[in-house]
């Protein structure tokens, strides 16, 4: 009977979806196709209009403008995906550095929660393996201060690794002093991420590539 065939098909589809073997339906992919079509045809129509209206000069200006817009859009997409150039990192303020670190963590597969509203800039992150990070930030202004000054915040606040499973990460755009490094090594579970490592992380390296413990 038609009704029984339909119910059998629905059950089969449900089983395939549960197994992850059933592809998306048309209504799920149609918005993506529409956006792709608009991204292709709207610029072409714009270039055609510029050519008809202003001739070759208008076409050239249109191509240059679209190229500039595309480059700017790509930079935005790249940053949202957790990739930054050294120059882009240098322009970030304290809140911007927190946002960038959160994006880089998500890029590497961490689930991130911003705890900044509850105090100093801080992120909590957890990966699929159950590792947990407490990410703190030394203020950007400290990168221009005397790097020999030991123990600047937030290093002391990070030294609680013995009471829980967290790995403490302290992000700093500058360089940590020798005393900072010795202090962190004595704590256990504290990872200092200086400006050089930060640039590598922003370029695509993972925290594991940079020696994250655990």
Task: Tell me what the structure shows.
With 214 residues, this protein is α/β, with parallel strands linked by helices. Helices cover 50% and strands 11% of the residues. It is built from 7 helices and 5 strands; from the N terminus they run αααααββββαβα. The chain has helices at residues 2-18, 26-54, 56-80, 86-90, 94-107, 178-187, 195-202; strands at residues 111-114, 122-126, 132-137, 167-171, 190-193. The chain has a 5-stranded mixed beta sheet. Strand 1 and strand 2 form a beta hairpin. Helix 2 (26-54) packs antiparallel against helix 3.
Low-confidence stretches: 143-154, 158-163
The percentage of residues in β strands lies in 5-15%
Number of strands: 5
Strand neighbour order, sheet with most strands: 1-2-3-4-5
Q: Rounded to an integer, what's the Rg over CA atoms? A: 25 Å
Mean pLDDT, all residues: 75
| Total DSSP helices | 7
Shape: flat
Biggest β-sheet, characterized? 5 strands, mixed
Q: Helical amount among residues, as a percent range?
A: 40-55%
């Amino acid at each position: 009977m038609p009704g029984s065939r339909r119910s059998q098909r629905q059950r089969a589809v449900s089983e395939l979806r549960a197994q992850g073997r059933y592809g998306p339906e048309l209504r799920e992919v149609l918005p993506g196709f529409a956006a792709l079509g608009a991204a292709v045809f709207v610029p072409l129509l714009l270039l055609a209009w510029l050519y008809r209206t202003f001739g070759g000069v208008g076409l050239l200006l249109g191509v240059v403008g679209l190229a500039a817009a595309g480059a700017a859009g790509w930079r935005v997409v790249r940053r949202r995906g957790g990739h930054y150039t050294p120059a882009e990192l240098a322009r970030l303020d304290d809140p911007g550095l927190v946002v960038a670190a959160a994006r880089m963590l998500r890029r590497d597969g961490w689930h991130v929660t911003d705890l900044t509203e509850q105090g100093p800039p801080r992120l909590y992150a957890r990966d699929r393996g159950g590792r947990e990070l407490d990410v703190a930030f030394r203020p950007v202004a400290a990168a221009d201060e005397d790097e020999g000054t030991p123990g600047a915040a937030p290093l002391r606040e990070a030294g609680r690794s013995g009471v829980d499973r967290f790995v403490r990460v302290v992000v700093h755009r500058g360089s940590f002093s020798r005393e900072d490094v010795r202090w962190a090594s004595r704590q256990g579970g504290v990872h200092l991420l200086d400006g050089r490592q930060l640039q590598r992380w922003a370029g695509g390296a993972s925290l594991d590539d940079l020696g994250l413990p655990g």
